[in-house]
Amino acid sequence: MQFRVQSFETVTSTNDLIKRAIEEGQPEGLAVRGLRQTAGYGRQGRAWESPIGGMYQSFLLRPEVPPAQLPTLSLLVGLAVRRAIASLVPELEGRVQVKWPNDIVVAEAGASLDEAAPSAGEGSACGEGSSALCDAAPGDDSRPKRPFHKLCGISTEMHARALCVGVGVNVARPADTASVPAGKNIPVYLDELGFCEGPVEDRINAVAGALCDQLAIVYPLWCEQGFEPFQAEFDACSALSGRFVRMEDLSGNVLAAGTVTRVAPDGRLVLRTPEGAEVLASSGEAHIR
Fold first, then answer.
1. Average pLDDT of the chain?
2. N or C: lower Cβ tally within 10 Å for the chain?
3. What's the pTM value of the predicted model, to 2 decimals?
């Protein structure tokens, strides 16, 4: 598979252009990039202005797969993003993690994938959102504060019987930091992690190109065999593995709680409750304990 790339200086949202292409009946494989977005948005419609410094790219996909397989697509795209970043900055291989269901985060320096995951019950309830960060409880020095910094967010939308997949990666910290939206997560940028040589636009294009390359590899296999071939890879670099999480809906109602053990073939998060039972979480935001 090879993506047809369209690049723009300024767009309202790369997702807007993909949705228009879907309505026009264009075939899958279109990738739209924007150097800046004036009306970007992510999961649950959260909107912001996207200044120069981020990689903003959306994809048009028309997978012929069972509907039950579709929820795993965001997990697959997360793995493709992680692979792309590792291909450009190999020293980040052990720190870049996928965070169910739709984020890429970076562990604090010096923390390996295993070390970033504490045992169940550690710390206190804190943080919000699909990429909730967690501070240690007062007086608890068992692990560093803010174990994750957010590097990338992914949105997946069904539109007119096709899929619009949007990806935003923090490549370079914007010069005007006041334009960066204040959110629930502490952002981190690739230029702060060693990817800082050359013009910003060239680095953004390199990340976008690497993502296209990796998605072109994993997407056809996912269409043929589902998510099962990627389960072990996902679990190996999952930011939630071994953590006690509380899954909540938008109203704050608890849907499930337990220690994350793995991801199921259908993309649901497998939790082990304090009583030892396994429960499956298919929705909600993970609040880390």
1. 84
2. N
3. 0.84
